[in-house]
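Supplementary Note 3. Input sequence used for the single-chain structure prediction.
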Amino acid sequence: MPIGSRRSHSFYRSLIPALYILASLLVLPPASSAREVQFTILFTNDHHGQLDPLQVNDSTKPVGGVTRRMALIEKIRQEAGPKKVILVDSGDLFTGTALSSLTKGEADCAAYQLMQYDAVALGIHDFDYGKKALVEFNKKFRIPWVSANIVVRGNSQNFMKAYVLRYAGVRIGIIGYSNPETPSLTRRENVSGLIFNPAGAAAKGLHSILKKDADVFIALSQLGLDEDKKFAKDNTFLHVIVGGYSHTLLTEPVVEKNKDGAIAGPIIVQAGSQGLYLGRLDLTLDSQRDPKTKKEEYWVSDYKYQLIPITSDLPEDPKMTALLERYRGHLKAKPLDETLANLTGPIPMNDQGDSLMGQIAADAMRSEGAAQIALLNSHSIREDLPAGPLTREKLYELCPVEEEVVMLDSPGWVIRKAIEASLAQKGKGDFLQISGLKVQAVDGTTVVLVGDEKLKDRQRYKVAVNDFLAEGGDGYELFRKIKSKRNTGLIVRDLLEKSLQEKKTIEPQNLEKRWDLP
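The predicted structure, written as C-alpha cells, is reproduced below.
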C-alpha cells in the first residue's frame, strides 16, 4: 500500500480477531518448548581444619583461611544474586591444625555455619571424634551434613540426611556419598553401629525417589577422582560431581562429550584441599517438557569453570575474624605460638625407614607405658619439619589425629608378623616406627632383636601401640585379635609434646638406625 493511503474502518475491525489469535500464539509456548536456567555452584573439599591462612612468603600464592574465603563467597553472592548461588563441600572438615584439633572440630563447624554452606558431605576425618560428636554437632550447628550410603545397623535408616533440596531457579537435589572404606581408615569405635554401603547401590536406589522432588542433581563425593570417573559413567542422571578425598586440584573439570559436542553425563570438579582455592562452576541448563510425563527434563548446555585462589590480597570478613578470635581465646592454657623445642636442622618424615620424630614418639609411648616395645604407624607423623622453633601449632599439624596409647600383651610371633607386614609396606603410611626393637638383614634373613636378644615367638611381650593399630588399622589385624589389651588414657601427641619440652633441643644426627636394612 502506498505511504499515506487509508483503509476503511470496517477493514481494520475485520483484522482484530486474527491479531488476537497471533498474539496468543506468540505469548503461550507449546508444552514441549525449552526453558533456560542459570545458577552458580561454589565448592570446597578436604578443608582439614585449615581455618587460618597458611604461612607463604610469595603473596601471589594461595594462602587460604576462612576469613578470606567468606569474604569472597559473600562478594560472589552479591554479584550473582544470593538465590542463584549454591555453596557445598564434599567433606573432611576436621583434623589438620591446632585450632581445629584443640576445639575438637567445633571451630570448623562454627565457621561453616557462618559461611552458610548448603550441604556438606561426610568424609573419613569427620568421624575422628566419633559418631556421637557428629550427632552433637548436627544438633548445635546448622550444617546440612549429607550421606546417602551411611546407614544405622539394625534399622537401615540414614545416619545423616541422604540429601538436601535447594532452589536456585530450579529444584536441586544435593546428595552425599561417603567413602565405603571409612571403617578401615578410622578407629572402629568411631563408626561402630554404622554400615557404609557402596556408593553406586545407594545412588541407584535414591534416584527413583529423589527425581520426584528435584530436577538437577549434584553429588558430593568422598570417593576420590578415579572412583568419581567410574561413578559418573554408572550414574548419568547426575549433573555435577563435586569430588574430594584425593585432594586433586582440577584446573579443568572432567567432562565427557558426545560427538556433537553435547555434554554427556556429570561434570566432575575438585578444588585441591585446605581451602586454598574456592571452586566456581557457573551452569546454564536447558530443559524441555516431556509430552508423556509432563515433567521438565534438564541438561547442562553450557558452563564456565574456575578455581579462585585465596590469596593474601583478598579482604577478610570481620564476622569470621571475630569468630576465630573467640575460639583462640579459649586456648590460653595451651598457646599455639609456644615453642616446645628448637630443631638444629630439618627433620623429614619417613615411611621407608627410621624417622626421628617417629622414634621420639615411640620412645615416649614405651617409657610412659612401661612397655618393652612400642610401635607406631608412620602416617601418625604427617609432615617434614624445617630447622628452627617447633611450636605447639606446628606439633598439631605434625600429629593432627588424637591417638590413645593401648597396651598389648602380645606373643612374639605376632610382633614378627607385624614387622614382616611393615617391610611389605615400605613407602606407605602403614610402615612402622619402632622403639625397643632393632630389625637387621643378616645373610638374606630378617632378624628382630628386643634389646640385645632375639625376638622369641612364644614369649609374651608388653607392647605399646596407638589405638588405630590396636583395632587392626592399616591391615594389622593380628593386633585386634589379641584379647589382653588395656587402654591407658595417654595421648600420643601429648607424650610427644612432653618429650620435646624435656629435650629442648632436637638434633637430626640423633636419629638411630633401628631398621638396619639394605
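The first strand starts at residue 34 and ends at 44. The chain has two domains: 34-329, 339-516.
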